[in-house]
Design goal:
The protein has 444 residues and is α+β, with helices and mostly antiparallel strands. Helices cover 28% and strands 30% of the residues. The strands form 5 sheets. Strands 1, 3, 4, 10, 15, 16 and 19 form a 7-stranded mixed β-sheet that branches. Strand 15 (329-343) and strand 16 (349-363) form a beta hairpin.
């Protein structure tokens, strides 16, 4: 009687031989040892590959373009005093941010050797200042050290300002033609009079009219506040400026230029009168740091340090220097910005931005390029440092993953073992047959 077990014997693809019929040889043992070593090496290699962390990029449409984007700036200007620097931001939508450096940025005055003289928190009314050598916040320490914030604060409380400089309570400062004050005598309410009480207000009135302000000399408010003296004392200083600004996610530019800025129809103008005061001034610059987006937390920085390729592409401008000592010169950086997300194995997510940079500079007088005689530069413009940025509508998602899954690892191990044993069997059979042929010839 044929049982079901006997039927299954017919399907056995792995027929066995009797132990006594097996022949073991020295060559077969050598081949077996070599195969074993190869299998172990291949398994170790597969394991290392399985544990290798890789970044798998994916390109998608950026759906966060309605959100504003932060720009982190830290730049040193060794040949320009802080009082002369103005930072403006504009974009193709028409949004214009004038004198951004006065709100939330920090300026550090530098001597001729590049060492810190004093630091100023330029966020008006912050109540914080800095010591001579550190950029760490020191609340309520040296609050009036080399800063104009004192009178900027007092202008909000006119009695204090008037008392400080022994002025009459009905004092109304002249605007020197920058504002119409002809009707002041007819106005009974003091608050409705058109006045320029402080040097800063006169300066703003001049800028609104597009007038040159120079160093404030012969303007009674500036003379009274010591503005003229301080400006002339600082002509040989440098400046380091750092902080954060916010922009729309569209094309535009961020630029540093000398003097107060104002807008006119189809124009953006800077007061260059003080820039002409000394030949020392130039827009030599060192970019300590320039980036888009938030600074990653320490836990995410550890992951970034492990992935060196990310570090290289994140901050290409860090450490950039341009020290040509050209006075009337325009320096431009053209930036292509791409939003980027990093998703790490520890479930942390970093929303940041990558950008590429192309540098170009030219003299304002135009003419032939010094290095390329066949290239002509356009004439005109203002001396300054410009960052032209263009935001991509696409977004890169970089996912941190292991190079292989468990299934791929097991499949790779099985393939390695099976392949080595199959090749080993062929080699063993070939050696065995060759040995038999040689023995027959020897016997004959």
């Amino acid at each position: 009687m044929i049982t079901s077990r006997n039927k299954l014997v017919n399907f056995d693809a792995f027929a066995k031989t009797v132990e006594d019929a097996r022949i073991r040889t020295t060559s077969g043992g050598i081949v077996t040892l070599v195969c074993f070593i190869l299998v172990v090496c291949l398994i170790i290699n597969d394991w290392n590959e399985f544990r290798t962390i890789v970044i798998r990029p994916e390109l998608v449409v950026d759906r966060d373009r309605a959100k504003r984007l932060d720009i982190n700036v830290d730049i040193t200007f060794p040949n320009l005093p802080c009082d002369l620097l103005t930072l403006d931001i504009m974009d193709v939508s028409g949004e214009l941010q004038l004198d951004v450096a006065q709100y939330g940025f920090k300026k550090i005055r530098l001597d001729l050797n590049g060492k810190n003289i004093a630091s100023e928190d330029l966020q008006i009314g912050s109540g914080e200042s800095y010591d001579d050598s550190s950029t760490e916040v020191k609340p309520n320490q040296n609050q009036n050290q080399g800063s104009f914030d004192d009178d900027q604060l007092l202008e909000q409380f006119s009695p204090e300002y008037l008392n400080k400089y022994n002025l009459d309570h009905d004092y109304c400062g002249p605007c020197f033609g920058a504002k119409d004050q002809s009707n002041n005598e007819k106005v009974e309410n003091e608050e409705e009079k058109v006045c320029c009480q402080t040097c800063k207000q006169v300066k703003e009135a001049y800028a609104a009219n597009g007038w040159a302000f120079f160093d404030g000399s012969e303007i009674e408010q500036c003379e009274r506040e010591g503005y003229v003296t301080r400006i002339n004392e600082r002509l040989n200083e440098g400046c380091r400026i750092y902080g954060k600004a916010s922009i729309n996610r569209i094309a535009g530019n961020l630029h540093f230029a000398p003097g107060a800025s104002h807008s006119a129809p189809m124009k953006h103008i800077h007061d260059l009168s003080l820039f002409d005061k000394t030949k020392r001034f130039s827009f030599n610059h060192v970019i300590n740091h320039f980036s888009f987006g938030e600074d990653p937390e320490s836990s995410i920085k550890a992951s970034l340090n492990r992935l060196k390729t990310i570090q290289v592409s994140s901050h290409p401008l860090d450490g950039f220097k341009s020290l040509k000592n050209e006075r009337y010169h325009l320096y431009s950086h053209y930036l292509k910005v791409v939003s980027t997300r990093y998703e790490f194995l520890n479930s942390t997510v970093l929303e940041t931005n990558q950008f590429s940079s192309t540098f170009h500079d030219r003299p304002l007088k135009g003419g032939k390029d010094e290095d390329h005689p066949h290239t002509l530069h356009a004439k005109g413009g203002i001396p300054g440092l410009f960052f032209h940025f263009d935001i991509s509508p696409l977004k890169i998602i970089n996912r941190e993953q292991y190079a292989k899954s468990w299934g791929s690892f097991l499949l790779s191990v099985c393939s390695a073992v099976g392949g080595v044993l199959a090749v080993g069997a062929v080699i063993d059979r070939t050696v065995w047959e060759a040995d038999k042929v040689l023995r027959r010839k020897k016997d004959t």
